[in-house]
Amino acid sequence: MYLLFLDTETSGLSPNSAQIIEIAGVVAKLDKVTLKLEIVDGFESLVALRGEMDDKITRITGITKEALLLAPSIFQVQEKWADFLSGYEDIKIVGHSIDFDISFMKNESWFLPSTSTIDTLDIAKIVYPDMNAVNLEYLIEQLHLNPTAHQIKSLQLSQELILNSHRALYDTICCLNLLSQSLSRISEMGLSQNFYDQFDSFLGIGLEYFSKEITTKNNRVRLAEVNHVGLDGRIIPIGIWSKIKLLGYSMIETKLNELLSKSYKKDYLLIMLQIFVINRLQLNNINNISYKIHTKNPKEIVFAELILGYLVTEKDSRNGFESLPIETFIPNIKVASEKSYQFGRFVTLVEIFLDIFIDKGDIRKEITIAMRKIISAYDFMLLALQPLYQRGEYTYNYTTLEPEEVVIQRKLVDFENLLISIKSFDLPHQGEVTHLVVKAIVSSLEKFFDDGVLQINPKNKLTFRYFGNQLYINKPIKYFNIQTHLDELMKKFPDLVFTTYLAESNLESLLELIGVRNKVQMSKVKFLNKNNNKFESIDNDVEFDEFIQNNIESAKKNKGINLILGGQNSTIRDSERVLIKNFSPKDYLLLGESGSLTKILSKMQNGFSGLVVVKIGDFGYLSRFISDYDLKEIWIVNPPYFNINNYWFEMAKRSDNKDRFMREIKRIYFEYQASMINQNAGLIVKYLRSYRT
Fold first, then answer.
1. What is d(CA 289, CA 87) in angstroms, rounded to the nearest whole number?
2. Nearest to 434 by CA among 550, 370, 491, 354
3. How far, in Å, are 60, 151, 624, 628 from residue 612 at the CA level?
4. Which of 202-211, 285-294, 409-418 has the lowest mean pLDDT?
5. Within 10 A of 509 (CB to CB), how many other CB atoms are there?
6. Other C-beta atoms within 10 Å of 440: how many?
7. What is the pLDDT of residues 125-148, one digit of tens each?
8. Would you state the pLDDT for residue 246?
9. Strand 213-215 vs strand 220-222: parallel, antiparallel, or unpaired?
């Protein structure tokens, strides 16, 4: 069987406004028993630019506009491409996020020998839950997927083309190596037949050895007579299988096998297979590796939560919490002082419900209509709120309506009617998964009502917040008091231990400010910052270009990383302007310009030395892997943005000095952030208050 590994480089992200500027293809032969891939042919070419190209593309790929001026026209390359593939019929196309490449090729009428594709992004999500990310760049560095000398030689193409990362041919060979390693790893896990049957729906390569005869040393055995078969065709003897089952298989895997015996849409099946692999890896987890379910949208996240909730028994789950970081009261007081209605999650559950049932025709027409109206109303609400958002939050007060807010009020009335109508339906369900979805919908609905009365109606003062593609509608708790709230927590969790990154003097100041000094015993406080080091404050204004220059030179000289944590978005923008204008991409990693946070972390872990610029909130993620890279200096630049909640304003008014109260709250919160960074990094944090541009 032949596979075509395909990759393109493009002048932008949309096929409607950008074009292919480089294309590469590698044909490999797959042995479906050994799962070995052998390269048999290759193709690579630049394509002349017909429009504009962002300079960012050159910085990422190294492809210049000058090189594209000398490249052959698209028609010449398309003809050679068609000739290259003329001998291959019904070949499967393989790529990482292959739909992106296919969309460009279809838009430009390139020859495609098949409509059948394998996306190694989906394969990687299933096979590598121990990876923080599954983009190709990250996997290349983590799994060492770089082209081998043998592969380079077998292609008989320019070595320079192959060895440059972010080039089409290089990425194509890395994709081939990714599929090869993935198949090898999954075959060694010895998973159930149910798993392999479902996994093949993402491969579609026809696992013929599941039905053919295999010759063993002693006799010929038909696989139909054998209960368990490894992916690579090896028969696992029944006796050994029994021992494996006794040693490692858990009740969770039994439940998963039951769930996998049903049919699911591809997105949901992808989640199920990821959980299956995570469970197997957990059984042999010696080094306490953390695993991640790779999701791309709210539906997948919510579906994963439902399945995990079903698999984990009450005995295994933890109710409540054992410790409470007390300084987090400052930014999270608005969460504690409001009742939150997770409207986005409810609508996502409705979408999942329709996805599961709509093809089966198992829903009454009026239920389908009502649910579709809910989704439509939710989408309309997001559009109506968009221009009114301030820092991801908007407060609606029906007593003082602006013209735009009348639209929101009408939509809230629609929501009220729709929620009441859905609450009256008896929703159908079949099997465990659909039962979970229906149960979650009913549970969410109940939270919207109190004694049968809808709580998120147009007559209430409501706050709308939008986090991670999810809309939350919040209603103030009428008689909220932080002292009472803390009393209730301590009563509910008598063994509660308070944790803090603050020094004892700062903690006492905070407790005094929030009026709970007599409620928190110091003997029940765990101080997390053993170093107790102060941050170093730089008060004078500095020239930002010079500041960046000094940090890059310092990092290079010390062969390590200088980390700038931007307290505000303006720091990231100013850094981008200076870095792009004056420095090579090899000297810095910048959030956005150099990719996502996971891509930046991957480069940091692979010996990068230079300047890294991210947001202060990103440090928590980077600190989990801090031993993997060489950190020399840490700077906080610009005071971090901190939204003081109305509750604090009310407390400030009741204090002796309102302005001093607000300054003290902000100071303590900043010192908490600096102390947390200091403790995790083991470095004194330097603070640049302001700069000149």
1. 46
2. 354
3. 17, 34, 16, 15
4. 202-211
5. 18
6. 20
7. 999 998 888 999 889 988 999 888
8. 42
9. antiparallel
Residue whose structure tokens are 């890294």: 612
The bridge status of strand 338-342 relative to strand 323-325 is unpaired
d(CA 136, CA 395): 41
| CA-closest candidate to residue 140, choices 589, 591, 599 | 599
- pLDDT score, position 533: 67
CB atoms inside a 10 Å sphere around CB 224: 8
CB 51 within 8 A of CB 43: no
Nearest to 474 by CA among 339, 331, 645, 647: 339
To the nearest 10 degrees (0 to 180), the angle between helices 168-188 and 136-143 is: 60
DSSP 8-state secondary structure symbol assigned to residue 30? E
CA distance 587 to 309: 45
Q: What's the pLDDT tens digit per position in 609-624?
A: 999 999 998 998 899 8
Nearest to 455 by CA among 374, 343, 584: 343
Size (the chain), residues: 693
Give the torsion sign (CA, 442, 443, 447, 452): positive
**8 A C-beta contact, residue 462 and residue 475:** yes
Is residue 349 within 8 A of residue 356, CB to CB? The reply is no
616 within 8 A of 640, measured Cβ to Cβ:
yes
In sign, the C-alpha dihedral spanning 627, 629, 632, 635 is: negative
Strands (E), 224-352: 323-325, 338-342
- Name the 3-class secondary structure at 348: helix
Q: How far is 165 from 580, CA to CA, in rounded Å?
A: 20
Over residues 142-155, the pLDDT tens digits come to: 899 988 888 888 88
246-269 average pLDDT score? 74
Note the Cα 521 to chain centre separation in Å. 39
Question: 687, 536 in Cβ contact below 8 A?
Answer: yes
- Token pair 């978005």 is at which residue? 569
Residue 453 pLDDT exceeds 60? yes
pLDDT in tens, 613-668: 999 989 988 998 888 899 999 999 988 777 777 778 888 888 888 888 888 888 88
> What one-character-per-residue DSSP string does 536-592 give?
EEE-S-EEHHHHHHHHHHHHHHHTSEEEEEESSHHHHHHHHHHHHHHS-GGGEEETT
